Amino acid sequence: VDLVTGQLGAEGAQGCAARIARVILAGNLLSHNTQNRDTINKAKYLTKKTQAASVEAVKMLDEILLQLCTSVPVDVMPGEFDPTNYMLPQQPLHRCMLPLSSAYSTLQLVTNPYQADVDGVRFLGTSGQNISDIFKYSSMDDYLEILECTLRVGHISPTAPDTLGCYPFYKSDPFILSECPHVYFCGNAPRFQSKRVLLVAVPAFSATQTACLVNLRDLGCQPISCAGFGADDGDMELGP
C-alpha cells in the first residue's frame, strides 16, 4: 500500500508511484484460511457465539482499500476464496461489506472475468481459476503457455462447465473472445511471467510478495517485489 501511495522508497520510486493510473486487484483478496469449512460439520450450539474468520478479514480488506482509494483508482475483482458466487462469471463483491472504501468513487467492484479500457489500452483478465483448472487437468505445466493457448483458441475458459463451474448460458457464450486485448492477464499464478500480446501471469501476492507494473505507453511489464513484506525491516525492489 505504501509503495502505491508514494510513501515508500526513494525519490525515483515515488515518482513512479505518482504515475500509476489504476490498480487492479485480481481476486483472492481473502485467504483460503478464512473459509472455516469445518464449522459446517459442527453442531450449531458449538458455533453459536463464534465469529467467522472472514468477517475480520473483510474489515481489514476495507481498511487497506480505503488507503488505496484515496490515492489511485482501484478495480477489485473477486476470486475463488472471496465472499461472492462460486460459478463463473463471478459477480462483484457487495458494497455493504466495504463501508469505508465504498464511499470513494475511485473504488470499482467488478466481475471476474473483467475487461477494462485504461487510457486506450484494453485489459482482459481473470482471477486465475480458468488457468489453474487447465493446469490441473492437462499436460501443460506453464501458466503463461496456458494463458497463450486460451488466447489462440479464442476462449477464456474452455474447461467450463466440465471441470470448472460456470453459469449455464445457452444463447451465447460470454467467454468467447470477440477481439484481442492489449493486455491479457490471470491472477494468483505461482510466479511472475509476461509475453506479448502482453500476457501476464500475476503471481499470488500472499506467496510471492510480488505485484506487476504495466507501462501503458509501450506495454512494458515488470514485477515489483516487496521482499520484506510483513517484516520489521521491509525492503522493496523494482524489477529490471
UniProtKB/TrEMBL annotation:
Residues 17-192 form the DNA polymerase alpha/delta/epsilon subunit B domain. It comes from the Eukaryota. GO terms for biological process: DNA repair; DNA strand elongation involved in DNA replication. Keywords: DNA excision, DNA replication. The keyword Cell inner membrane does not apply. One of its GO terms (cellular component) is delta DNA polymerase complex. Coiled coil: none annotated. Gene3D superfamilies: 3.60.21.50. GO terms for molecular function: DNA binding. Belongs to the DNA polymerase delta/II small subunit family. Transmembrane segments: none annotated. This is DNA polymerase delta subunit 2.
